Amino acid sequence: MPAGYDAQAIAEAMGIAFVRSLTQEAAPAQDGPARGARSNAGGDSERFRIKVDDGSVLVVEIGDGDGGVRIGPFRRTLEKERFRPPSPALIEKAVEVGLPRSALRHVAEKLAGEDKAKIAALEWGVVPKTTLLRRERQLSSQESERTERVARLFVHARRALGSDEEARQFMTTPHSLLDGRSPIDAARTDLGTRRTEQVLNALEYGLAL
Asked: Which residue ranges are recorded for the region named Disordered (predicted)?
């Protein structure tokens, strides 16, 4: 992972959290299943389970700051003790198994605010529209890697530039040092991501390029 990797902020940008494995995953949620959802929370949660040294952890979609998370079609409210702090290792493992589909939407919303058309366009810039339409619950590992790159660059840009708004503008504006591409377009490849990080490092520390 790059130096200065802010796992907490990156996980928040992707709207994910890490929860110590639940023993009754298929039990009814506090708010019940989403309308029309099948009652297969246990099966859904298995795909988001990652192995750690002391057992296993579930990658879940976070709620609105009230301790609520979504596991499969169910929403639950969990005690703070159930959450594990995000770390580079946990995020790497989550990317390997495939992030929740919602992670890409969270990142796009960070970049576009409430503009639904722009949110969709940003999502399709990371994962092609025809492919994304087939992703009901989970991204592939490659798509997850692209999503993490964009989240990482957004967090870096916010730190370097000082605000969400300036970070959004940087991420979506073509840059001469990226061959006229925007950082979100450059993030399609690892090398493009590294070049964008060099630009951000120069802005953050006053370095020459």
From this structure: 27-46
Q: Residue 62 above 80 pLDDT?
A: yes
Which of 55-69, 82-96, 139-153 shows the lowest per-residue confidence on average (mean pLDDT)? 55-69
Q: Please determine, for residue 128, whether its predicted confidence score (pLDDT) is greater than 90.
A: no
Question: Looking at 43, 62, 96, which one is the last position of a domain?
Answer: 96
Domain count, the chain: 2
How many CA atoms lie less than 13 Å away from 107 in the CB half-sphere? 34
Q: What is the DSSP string of 115-134?
A: -HHHHHHHHHHHS-HHHHTT
**Cβ neighbour number for residue 96 with a 10 Å cutoff:** 12
Whole-angstrom distance, CA of residue 55 vs CA of residue 34 = 29
Last residue within a domain, chosen from 41, 66, 96: 96
Residue 66 is predicted with a pLDDT of 55
Residues 152 and 109 in one domain: yes
